[in-house]
Amino acid sequence: MSLDSEWRNFLVNENLDEKTIFTYIQGLQEIISNLKPRTVSEKRRLQLATQHIREVRKYARRMLNENMDLQEKLNLLEENVGDE
């Protein structure tokens, strides 16, 4: 089974309403963990891909937190404009 077909199956089987960036990250992480490297070079590539997935998750959390902070600020500004 190829990586492309596994990714397509993941996308098809997931509920469209529940998809978030973390769902995609988890799917990628599961696909990477199921791959069996045959050479040292492939093993290094998978380690690098796993590290990149961790970095992406970290940045996604940071963006989500910043987005929530900005949403709160926007709500406060809208309330202040409504009070005037």
Commentary on this structure:
This protein has helices at 3-13, 21-34, 40-83. The chain has 84 residues and is mainly α. It has one domain (3-83). The longest helix is centred in the last third of the chain and has 44 residues, at 40-83. The model has no long low-confidence stretch (mean pLDDT 87).
Q: If helices are DSSP runs of H or I spanning 4 or more residues, what is the number of helices?
A: 3
Number of beta-strand segments:
0
Classify the helix fraction into a percent range.
over 70%
Task: State the low-pLDDT regions, or none.
Answer: none
Structural class: mainly alpha
Q: Give the SSE string.
A: HHH
Radius of gyration using CA atoms only: 19 Å
Report the end-to-end length measured between terminal Cα atoms.
62 Å
Quote the beta fraction.
under 5%
Quick one: biggest sheet?
Answer: none
Specify the overall morphology. Answer: elongated
Tell me the number of structural domains: 1
What is the averaged pLDDT score?
87
Layout: helices, strands, pairs:
Elements: H1 3-13, H2 21-34, H3 40-83
Helix pairs in contact: 2-3
